[in-house]
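Reopening this one. Same input as before:
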Amino acid sequence: MSVEEMDLTPAAHTQSAVQLNFLSLVLVTSLSGFCGGLAWAVLTSVLDFIGFIHLVKFNSYIANLITFPLIGLFFSAFFSVIGYPIYKWRCRQIRGQKLSGLFIN
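Same output, byte for byte:
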């Protein structure tokens, strides 16, 4: 087989076993908590604006859009810090967290 006929692209794999380190786990969960808080703030603001619900305690739209994402970010980061030893132990037991997708070395 000549060099021209060889496929030089790396092989794509469909499954991988990984374990996130401490910082990666905190960053991933913090991002998801922030996005969840932002989605909740937008949802409650829209529902209040169209009159479907009436917000009494959280009636400031700007405060909702600032505080809910920050609360989600804080609590998700806090619980990922607390839960990291359990996550690490569980990944060791099952030999890594199984992910599916297109992975290229």
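So the earlier flakiness isn't reproducible anymore. For the record, The beta strands are 12-18, 97-104.
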